[in-house]
Each structure stands twice: as structure tokens, then as C-alpha cells.
Amino acid sequence: MIHSLFLINHSGDIFLEKHWKSVISRSVCDYFFEAKEKAAEPENVAPVLQTPHHYLITIYRGKLFFLSVVQTEAPPLFVIEFLHRVADIFQDYFGECSESVIKDNVVTVYELLEEMLDNGFPLATESNVLKEMIRPPTILRSVVNTLTGTWSNVGDTLPTGQLSNIPWRRAGVKYTNNEAYFDVIEEIDAIVDKSGTTVCAEIQGVIEACVRLTGMPDLTLSFMNPRLLDDVSFHPCVRFKRWESERALSFIPPDGNFTLMNYHVSSQNLVALPVYVKQSISFFDSGPCGRLDITVGPKQTMGKTVEALMVTIHMPKAVLSANLTATQGSYTYDLATKVLVWDIGKLNPQKLPNLKGSLSLQAGAPKPEDNPSLNIDLKIQQMAISGLKVSRLEMFGEKYKPFKGVKYLTKAGKFQVRT
Amino acid sequence: MTDSKYFTTTKKGEIFELKAELNSDKKEKKKEAVKKVIASMTVGKDVSALFPDVVNCMQTDNLELKKLVYLYLMNYAKSQPDMAIMAVNTFVKDCEDPNPLIRALAVRTMGCIRVDKITEYLCEPLRKCLKDEDPYVRKTAAVCVAKLHDINAQLVEDQGFLDTLKDLISDSNPMVVANAVAALSEIAESHPNSNLLDLNPQTINKLLTALNECTEWGQIFILDCLANYTPRDDRESQSICERVTPRLSHANSAVVLSAVKVLMKFMEMLPKDLDYYGTLLKKLAPPLVTLLSAEPELQYVALRNINLIVQRRPEILKHEMKVFFVKYNDPIYVKLEKLDIMIRLASQANIAQVLAELKEYATEVDVDFVRKAVRAIGRCAIKVEQSAERCVSTLLDLIQTKVNYVVQEAIVVIKDIFRKYPNKYESVIATLCENLDSLDEPEARAAMIWIVGEYAERIDNADELLESFLEGFHDESTQVQLQLLTAIVKLFLKKPTETQELVQQVLSLATQDSDNPDLRDRGYIYWRLLSTDPVAAKEVVLAEKPLISEETDLIEPTLLEELICHIGTLASVYHKPPSAFVEGSRGVQHKRLPGSAGSGESVESPDPGAAATETPPAVIPSQGDLLGDLLNLDLTPTTTTGPPPPTTSGMQMGAMDLLSGGLDSLLGGDIGGNPAMGAAFGAAPATMPASFNAPGSGGLDDLFDLGGGVGMPMGALNPPKAVWLPAMKAKGLEISGVFVRRAGVIQMEMTLTNKAMSVMTDFAIQFNRNSFGLAPAGPLQILTPLSPNQSIEPLNNLQVAVKNNIDVFYFSCQYPISMLFVEDGKMERQVFLATWKDIPNDNESQFQIKDCHLNSDAASNKLQSSNIFTIAKRTVEGQDMLYQSMKLTNGIWVLAELRVQAGNPNYTVSSVALAIGPIINQNGFENGFTNQAL
């Protein structure tokens, strides 16, 4: 299975290596560097590379490459999933997953990696279990450590959760305030063509949970309209049989934050876009200039306000500058990256925001061949665009009454408008 | 406080300081020191010197300290095997600790110490742990067996650990089962035939039960293992499928894909009319779609697999076209894969949408992607007949953009469209021809030439177009050359009157001026074809071509079946069977899909033996005939150099005239051939020695006499003659010979022996055109200059033809290059210096001459006798540098630097030539020397 891991930063330095079997020389990464050299952008490096003796499977997260070396016919998805899990754990432990943070916590990182994999087989990848064995650094503890000189991040308790048949939950959880919060977050991925017709649109939904409950609570979450959900994937804690028969989520939750389920809504009639965009970007044959005119308006918002509206345009290389006026918000044009960003903010249905003006092109440059695409960002609070609604949350197995809450949020995922 | 402080102490006494701290009495200080050691180790510093001190800290109750020491041990035990033994005792003790977690930790760490010496000490504790009452210990021990196997496989087998591991598959705890399966799978990979994972319905049942309760990673191991099982019948198959389907909803995409693999495989066994079969098909689509909303790396692997699934069962995703539409911020590797799948899914129902998308992609920025998009449009046209017209017009639109690479791609695919739908879209040829000049890629040029040749009768100026390509014939790539040759032959067959010169030109370019055997062969075939039977030529060259198939890039079915069994693995990403790339795949078994029961449709591939017997019998002409043919061809063009005779009966006459000369001699050769061959072994060969010297060989001053150093009888200096043409090959004529240089004249000395029964007369000799322009100085017989054929490596290869009354014989021999050095090869000092500097470095080559026991002066004398002249001599640090010049018969100067070190028998030579550096190879120099040595 997984043989070694190398962490490589943006500029191509290997700053951490870990081997679970025999040591493999760093030079194996040269094949990766070669591929990186060829691909202009770091995100364009192919994730699976073949070398004469090894396979290199890479992910790119937070400007870092996690490069794993595999020697046998291992499932690449398995490796990629695991690498993402490693990155998630770093994020969870240190608040971010960056080179400096990893270097600052190198002993913890090393211990974590040791616990996560044994002989290339995943061992403990649940943050709940890991935190029992290796304590995450906290400000308070580092202060205490500095003062007393006792410095420890390895827990002296043993991972009891690993012995039970619900490995995701640690034992003996105690809270004075018992609470369970669920966030239903939906992202819209859509492509709209020149004429305003939706080419494709789908919703990626996720239910993030934050559960702090004492003991061993057994929860059941049910929906008003579960029929929406025909394509789902669950956290291992969810009992699949109950879902099949009752369309309700029944589970003993992990302690703390976790992703309860992911779902996917793709049937066209259910996906309504919250905004429409009227745009025209044209370049003249006659001279080195062009025109731009964009208006954004609300479409399906169910009475909620569209916030944090932002339009990003990757302009053709020949565009030198933009001289525009925005009726609302402000715009910036980055000369180096050729990215035009129009930050609109809240969408006011009475007075539609508009961005209009001229673009100047490099003198002598031919009329650009490629049409820029518009990328839309937005947020709508208290609404799930698919219409999904939680009806109730019940708790069994414990006597106390927890605080419960559900929040909804709709965001733009990869929402693009072609011109 | 952060760990970075551990990196700041890089002073010299660091190791020393740490040593002191490690031996401190204070527990905290000790721990702190171990941490510093670990931190140094992590960043690759060598702290192995501290081994004994760190191991001393191992005996502790402090769990953290224990873990840290274990970490250290795992890293350095290998480099300090003797020291590592010190740790064994502690491990053995820890394996009996009352706390199961400490037992597990110990057994886990033990396996990571990759030292042969201590493995035997670990067997007893491991055996105990495999039977431990606590599942956590058992599961850890299972993995440890795999580790131990990696270090010492024999030991594991001898100790019976494999059997214990097999027993663990029936363990009551799902985690233990999963780990046992994982360990066995890994071990099985190095023993493909060991039948370690002997699956039967009972174990399958155990695995399925464990599947529901173990961790996500365990599920992957179990599913991958299940996929190797072949169910007995369709009912068992269905029940396994039913129990695996819930895994499709797992959050871990690797679990999902492994489940898809099991289902894809077992589905083969289900009868297609079964309701459940349909249900299963429907259930497979959503999880596959969901995989595409994950991170790009996951998407990539998923897409590669979907590509396989779609080829095997297109019905699963036929309604999901839209999820494969490309977003502009997808990484390029995802974009290209999506495009591939879009084409596979394209059908009449969705083609309009697909085409609109593809057209959109063709205007993007990324060149690779745009190219593939344009190509995809062509593939759609070929796949969905109804859309062909729309595709063609889309392609024409794209050609109008005049973006260079778009135009080229479009032309390449339009060629394919013509081949799929002949006589339908030829109206667009005019537009294509407009872009002729902008084509600079071989593939596009070849495609365009093909189109011109194929539709020559409809293109008025086809001959002009093709002629324009012919100008730079030798600079074109092989692909274009071949295509041009074929196209002109087609043109000739269609319009024989105006294009005779053109076809002659291309045939002689292809056969005589090209180094490429493919091109030459094709040229000869056309030439022969045209000369013998133009009607047949027309039938062959202008034959109706088979229509190209719908999808040319489908994976071959048996390979696809094998790959389906490997869904989710590296094989599925590369689309190659594991045996093709897995390192040291010791006879990896080829997996097959099970045959489907009930439906009676067999998916077994046909017996490989059956295919092998159908190889068509190959007709290979005897070599003698072939040589004769080629030679005749060489001779013919000279007979047709005059204006071609008026062609009255169209092309047939023209073609005959063109090559008629060759036919007579061909006949002669064939008739004369066989009897002579038979006679070659005749009992009493009438030997007729015909030794001769080439005219002009008056002087007999031996070149080697000038060398002076070695006085030898003159006769002995003659290099022995080598047999150039054995009698077997030449109908009884044997030729042996040698090249020498005498008094400034290159001589070829030949002995001709008649080993046949009959008398030979009418001898003639002819050389093929060669690099140094060697030709017989005087005729042996009446000769016409042999037309140039081709140059063959090595450069000093000479092709000779000797003719007598029986036949023409053809052979080649190599002459020593030193023979070509002329007597006036001494360069002026100043000129030498200037020239040496002027010659670019690329022209330089270096080599060594071994075992030459001469001092520099003797060497220089000897070389001079071979016309290698020493211009200057310099002595630097005990090395003599000789600067030498020589001139070849064709006027090329070669300059050389010879380095001679006293006592070292090896000389280093750097040589540079004014025009052709590397040709003056080792041979030239060695000949100079070896000739002397004789």
C-alpha cells in the first residue's frame, strides 16, 4: 500500500518526508518535478504518475503537494482519499494546512502520520480517535507548557474508541451544555450559455454537524421532503438500513464537528438558479478596444436576499486595462493575471447592479479568439435552493434535553456564464 | 510554543549536548531531549550516533516517551542492527503487558524494525499476539505478519503464520477480518499462485458480515478481495450484489469504486431479463456521478474508470451526459478525460447539445484541450451519422477562424469523415485547399495530401498542389513522404497524361534518395506495379477502401474485460493490464469476467489457439530474385531519360514505356538463376582465377614501407582478402577482395573464382554511388554509369555490381577509411590553427585507441605513412599532444588531436571535420595503426 509520503511546497522543496516501510530516496520525486515543470499551473499536474519502479500519487491542497509513493498495484482512489484525510487532519489540528504550520508542529505531524498508517494500511484516520492519542496544540496548553517546562502533546490516555465497534466516537464524553447543530449547505454548479439558457445545473449538498452531547446519544434526523435525496453518501455512523426503509438518518454521532452526509441533486426541474446575468463583451475589429456591459438580477430567491455577490472574469491576454463604471460595488482589474473582479455585495432587486465601460487592448494585438467566462459567487442565508428541509431531530439513549438547531445556506459553486 | 525551536540548534556540539540530556536523571529533561532527537530525525539529520542513549530511555512507564523512542527505533534500527537487539527484550516484555494497547503498540513497532537479525526473536511474541484475547491486538498482529513477510518471507511460511492469518478471516471481530484480508492480499501479490485467499461461500459470508461493520479502509480491502471470487450461480451472485449495494452510498470514494467493481463483475452473471438486473443498473449511476463532484484528483481516477464502465455498459450513464460537461476551471487532466467520455456517450438523442459544447470548447485558451475538442467533433460525426452534416459545418466554421492549430486538427478529422462517408462532403475540399500553406504539422499535411490524392479527379490543380509539396520532399516527415508518394501514384492513375514526370520524380525520390526502408519499399512496389500491370495497379491503388469503424479508439474487448476486473486500481488508470507495468509482477494472473448464466451469452474470449492458426501463409521471394529485381530497377531509369514516347493509348502505354527496360533483364536473371545455383556444389568445379588489378596500379611502393619501423616482407603486408560474394549467392561466381592504397591511388584487388560448371564471360563492374565518390578508374568492360541508388550506413560501405554472361551480381563491402586519406593532406600550421577554432563543437568526436605501445614520435611516423600528417606537437604535463590533419578524397579536411601519455597504452583522439565531424570514426585511426602492426 502506501510506502512513503513527501510534502512539497509551491516552489518545489521537499520539506517533510515519512516512510512507512523501507526508506525511499528523495530522488523519486524528480519524476514529479519533471511533470510539474511541464504543466504550467501546479493544479494541472496529473495526480497519478508512473516511474520505472514506483507510482507517484499526488494531491494539491493549500499550495502544498502531498506526494505518496506506492510500489504495488494499490487503488489510487484509496491513496488519494487517504492523502486528503491527512490534509483534513492537519487542518483540524492546526487550523490551517500550510508549510509554516506543519514545520512549526513537526513532531505532532510526525506522530500523527505514524498513527494514521501502519505498514501502509490506514490505522486511525478519525480525528476523534487521533485527538485522544495526540492532543492538538492549543494556546492555553502551550502557555502552560512554556511556564512549567512540561511539554507534551501525546495523550496519556489510550484510544479506547479503537476497541469499540463505533470507532468514530470517543468514550466518556461529558458536556455541561449539550448541543447539536446542523448546517445544510448547498452549492450550485451551473453553466449558462451566451443566450442565458442553462446548459447544466446541479446542486452539491452537504450536512455539516456540530454535536456536543454527553454519553452515547443515538440520534434520528428526519426530513420534510426526503424524496429529493436520491444520490447520497453518508458518514460511516449512519445506519444505511434505516435510511433505506424510513428515509431518516439514524446514527450515534462522533464527538465534535463532522460531515454527516453529502448529496447531489441534478434533475433539471429541481435546480433553479437564484440569479440571472445579462452580459455582452465584445471586441471591435476596427481598433484596439472592446466594450463590456454586465447586469445581474434576481431569479429564484424565495424572498431571501442574495449576498456577497461577486463576478470574476478571466480576460483574454490582450486586454490591457478596463475603464468601467459600476452602479454598485467596486471593480478591480489585475494586470498580471488578467482577472477582472466586480465585488457587488447585496443584490437589490429594485436597482439592478450594472457594470459598463470600455476595455483597451494591446496595440497591434489581434482580436482575441477566446471568449472570457464569467464566474459568479454568491450566498443566500436561510435557504437551501433545492428546497430540502429538516423536520425534526430526536435523541434516544440519554435522558437530558439538548439544544438543537438547523441552519441553511446556499452558495455558488462552479457557477459560470459563457460569453 | 512551536516545534521550530528544535530546529534552531544546529551548532557543532549538538549531538554531544543531546547525549548529555538523554542521560539526565530528570524525566522531563530526558523527554525533551528525545523530542529534539526526533525533530532532527524528521528533517533528515543523522542522529543515529545517539542510538544507545535513546534505547536506554525505552524502559519507561511514560507512554509518550515510549512512543517517541519507538519512532526513533523504527528509523535507525536498520543502520544499527547490533544495537537494535538491545531493544528486543523490551519488546518481548511489552508484548505481555496487561494493557492491550501497549501490547498492540509493541507488536506494531516490532514489525517496523526491518532488521533480519531480530526477526527470529519476534516470532514468539507475534504468535502470542495473533491469538491474543483482545481484538485490537489481533488486528495489529495481522498487519505485522505482512510486515514480517516483506522482510523474510521464508520465515513467515516456516512459522505457519500464513495459516494463522487465514484463520483470522473467520474471526468474530470485523476489524480483525479486514486487516487479515489486507495482509493476505498484500502477501498474495508476491505469490500469485499460492491460493492464499481461498474463497468459498462460508468465507464470503463472513466477509460480507464484516463488511458492514468495519472501517472504511477495511471495507476497501474486503471489497477488493470479494471481487476475486467467482460465484457458483446467478443466485449467489445476486445475493452478494444485494449486500454490496449499500456501500455505494459511502462517503469514501474508494469504497464506492471498489463496490462498483464488485457489482460490475458479478452483474455479468445475472440474467438480463431479471428485474434486479435493471434495478442494479439504475443504482450504479448516481454514485458514479457523485464521484465527479469530489476533488479533482479523485475526479481524474473516477473518470478513467468511468471510461471503462461506459465502454462495457453504456446504458448506465447514457442519461448523464451533462455531468461530463467541462468547466473552464477544471484542471486540464480532468478536461481531457471528460471530453473522451462525452464522445463515448454521444448519441442521436444528445448530439445537438454535445456539439454545442464542443464548439464552445474549441474557442478556449488551452491548446491541447482545443485540439482534442476539434478532434472530438470529427469523432461525433463518425459515430452519429445523423450529425455528420452538422459536424462538418461546425468544422468549417472553425477553419474560418484561421487559428493555425484549429485548422490543422480540423483537416485531420475531416479526412476521417471522408473515409466514413465517401462522396458526400467533397464540396468542402475547396475550402480546405485554401489553407494548404498554413499547415505545418506532419499529421495535417499528410491528411491534406491524402485528400488531394483521393479526390484528384475533382481538384483541377491537384498536380500543382502535390508538386508544391514535392519540392521539400526530403525535409518532410516519413508520414508525409509516404502519403505524398501514394497520392501522386493515385493522381497518375487518374490523370496519366499530365503527370508522368511527377510520378517519375516521386518514385526516384522515394527509391533512390531516401534512407527510409519503408518509403523505398513502397516506392519499389508502386514502381513494379505500374510497370508490370497498370490495370492491376489501378485495382490495387484505387481500390475501394473499407469504411472506418465507428470508434477506432475502443479498448479491445478482452483487455476491457480484464480491466473491468481491475476497476479502481492503477491498471484502470493506465488502461493497461497489470502484467504490462507492475514491477516484478511474477506471473500476475489475468482476471476474467465470469460468464453469464441464464442469458446464455458467452463473454469468454475465443480460444487463443484458434486465432493463431489463421495466420495467412507468407510469401517470401527468394533473396536472389529480389536482389536481381532491385538491380534491374536501378538500371532502368537511364534508359528512359529521353523524352517519353508519345502516349497513344493513355496511361497503360505510358506506364509500360516508363519501365519497360527493366523487364528484359528481369527475365534474364530469373532464367539464369536456378541451374547455376544447383551447380554451385558441383564435384569438380572448374576454377578460373581471374585476379586483376584495377588499371593505374603501376607503382608498388608499399604504403607501409614508409612507416619504416617494422621491416617485414612485402607480401606479408598485404591485408588478406575477404570473401565479398560467396559462390552460393552468385550462381557459382565467388569474389573476394581487399582495398589498399598504393602511390596515391585507391585500389580494389579482387579475385574472381568460377565455381560453377560453365564458363563465364563478359565481365563488367559497376559501383553504386557512394559517400566518397569511389568509381572504377577504368572499365573492366563496357559500362554505362549506374544510376545512383541510395547511401547506406556506414559511410564507407561500397555497393558493387559485377556482371558476367550469366547474371548481374550484387554485393557490398566496406573499405577502410584510412584508404581515403590523400597524400597532400598536410595543412599549413596557421591554417590548421584557424580552422580548428572555426569548426563548431558539434562536429567533434572523441574516442580512445587501446593498447598501442608506441611513443608519440613512432606513432606520428606510422600515421604519416597512412597519410595522417602531424602538423605540430606539444608536450603538456607528461602528455604529448599531436595535432594532425588528413584530407579525404572528396576534399573534406579532418583535423585531429592525439593525446599520448607515456606508459599509457591508450590514446585519446579528438577529431573534427570541416563538414562532417563524426564520420571520421575510430576505424580510420585504428586502421592507420593496425595496418602498421601487421
TrEMBL record, chain A:
Subcellular location: Golgi apparatus; Cytoplasmic vesicle membrane
Protein's recorded name: AP-3 complex subunit mu-1
Signal peptide interval: none
Pfam families, per database record: Adap_comp_sub, Clat_adaptor_s
MHD domain residues: 177-418
Keywords per UniProt: Cytoplasmic vesicle, Golgi apparatus, Membrane, Protein transport, Transport
Family note: Belongs to the adaptor complexes medium subunit family.
Membrane topology note: Peripheral membrane protein
Any single biological process term in GO: intracellular protein transport
Organism this protein belongs to: Gasterosteus aculeatus aculeatus (three-spined stickleback)
This protein's record includes keyword Oxidoreductase: no
Principal location listed in the UniProt entry: Golgi
CC per GO annotation: clathrin adaptor complex; cytoplasmic vesicle membrane; Golgi apparatus
Its biological purpose: Part of the AP-3 complex, an adaptor-related complex which is not clathrin-associated. The complex is associated with the Golgi region as well as more peripheral structures. It facilitates the budding of vesicles from the Golgi membrane and may be directly involved in trafficking to lysosomes.
CDD domains associated with the record: AP3_Mu_N
From TrEMBL, chain B:
Subcellular localization, as worded in the UniProt entry: Endomembrane system
Name this polypeptide is given: AP complex subunit beta
Family annotation (SUPFAM superfamilies): ARM repeat (SSF48371), Clathrin adaptor appendage domain (SSF49348), Subdomain of clathrin and coatomer appendage domain (SSF55711)
An example molecular function term from Gene Ontology annotations: clathrin binding
Higher taxonomy: Eukaryota, Metazoa, Chordata, Craniata, Vertebrata
Topology in membrane: Peripheral membrane protein
UniProt region (Disordered), positions on chain: 581-652
Family from the record: Belongs to the adaptor complexes large subunit family.
